[in-house]
User: What shape does this take?
Amino acid sequence: MGQKVNPIANRLGIIKGWDSNWYGGDNYGEMMLEDSKIRTYLNARLAKASVSRIVIERTLKFVTITICTARPGIIIGKGGQEV
Assistant: This one.
């Protein structure tokens, strides 16, 4: 019997990137909880938009959220009103 390895773990950093890109330092727990809340909120709010991936990147002053979706028109809204 061979050992089973998660294929996503093998691809991280080579073929596929991380879903969160930041360094937490002493605030790691708070930032992880904030990331979880952001993902939960966006998945609930955009349930009909077929969201496949949410990438959160943090710098010292900014948080950048990238949403990968099959239906961007639902997120953007009519004439860009929802953005």
User: Anything to note?
Assistant: The first helix runs from residue 7 to 11.
